[in-house]
Amino acid sequence: MGAELQCDATRSVNARGQTLAPGFIDVHTHDDLVVLRDPRMLAKISQGVTTVITGNCGISAAPVTLRGELPDPMNLLGSAEEFHFPHFAGYRAAVQAVHPAVNVAALVGHTALRNNHMDRLDRSASVAEVAAMRGQLAEALGHGALGLSTGLAYLSANAATTEEVLALAEPLAEAGAVYTTHMRTESDAILDALDEAFTIGRESHVPVIVSHLKCAGIANWGRGSEVLQALETARLRQPVGCDCYPYAAGSSTLDLRQVDERVKITITWSEPHEEMAGRTLSEIAAAWNVSQLEAAQRLQPAGAIYHSIAEDDMRRILAHKATMIGSDGLPCDPRPHPRLWGTFPRVLGHYSRDEKLFSLSEAVHKMTGMPAQRFGLAGRGLIRVGYSADLVLFDAQKIADTATFSDPVSPAEGIISVWVNGELAYTCNGATGERAGTFVARGKAEWVQ
Ligand code: ZN
Ligand code: CU
Description:
Layout: E1 19-22, E2 24-26, H1 34-37, H2 42-45, E3 49-54, H3 88-98, E4 103-106, E5 108-109, H4 110-117, H5 127-142, E6 147-151, H6 162-175, E7 178-182, H7 190-204, E8 208-210, H8 224-235, E9 240-244, E10 250-253, E11 265-270, H9 281-288, H10 292-299, E12 302-306, H11 311-319, E13 323-325, H12 339-354, H13 360-366, H14 369-375, E14 391-394, E15 415-420, E16 423-427, E17 430-431
Parallel strand pairs: 2-3, 3-4, 5-6, 6-7, 7-8, 8-9, 9-13
Antiparallel strand pairs: 1-14, 10-12, 11-12, 14-15, 15-16, 16-17
Bound molecules: zinc ion and copper (II) ion.
Zinc ion binds at residues 57, 151, 182, 211-212.
């Protein structure tokens, strides 16, 4: 810092030749419960991530009152006994109390709300059930929730009508909150699904963020431009954006509808067949001498990585100016998709520096200023006097992801120092033990298209 500047810093850092950026914001996580279970949050802080947004894809830790089994895919977040937050305020307090290494901001999941009030999830909610869900959502928004997420593709929410979601979007508009969606489908009918998401946003006057935008399934490879065109058209009339992870493979619970003999599917965990974790579905099917669909049925409940995205489509979406970066990492997975540990360095190193998909400053904006504005993370996302000192210092020439599909638990290279709320949380020698993260309540969102 130049001598002419007034400052009251107690420490100075020589960062010559290195790059200082606002701490990265992971807009799409399933870190709701892992942050309480293991508040060190190594997978994230090691990438320079200083804030995670939880509650995506319709599933959240709060507000939740379980009745019986955990519905799919809420089991991605943790085990049934870890869900003990009937009120959003309780979750907020628990995050504060545990002193996480990163800041946490949270959405409320539509599927979580459905499960609180419905006896079965394969139907749409009644008027009374919608009213109950809406009351819980409004209460959570009052305690700082960022907005509502849906996971309409999952069977636990697929029967929900557009009207059901529209009714829930009403309190979002009042609160100035956002709507994020894992759309009804990401394959053949993706344009209809986009249209549904945009309609919900337009009719309720709420900004829409399409989660992990992709064209899934071999039949849809090459449709990236068409999908982005639909996004562009919508952006002319309403606030719309999306997030994306920088890999040509997705991951979630094992979905029979996504089993396709032509697609490589790796099983990451299986409750009845633990021994099959890490093997491909085709190997398992061959070993059992059954079809892949039959093998998938026997493996359930299970988790999977689907190599069902075209690299070209992913690059196009990643590079689009409306796209933010979200890892969609699955922290409970024993053999997680490498996006959990590698997303941010992969965007900065591989896609920006090496492949020149976009400039370094564009890459940083996608993971800092843009998400802070859209989600209403006030006082974050920029390096500015008066802002929280969430910072990452990295070597732009060396930054790289090291996590791979075969060796997915591996920290980034080239991250030099990470500060959270002014405290040094991580260096190239690892975590410092300082955990200065806090719960971040919704502030005023500002949408710049
Ligand atoms: Zn999702
Ligand atoms: Cu997700």
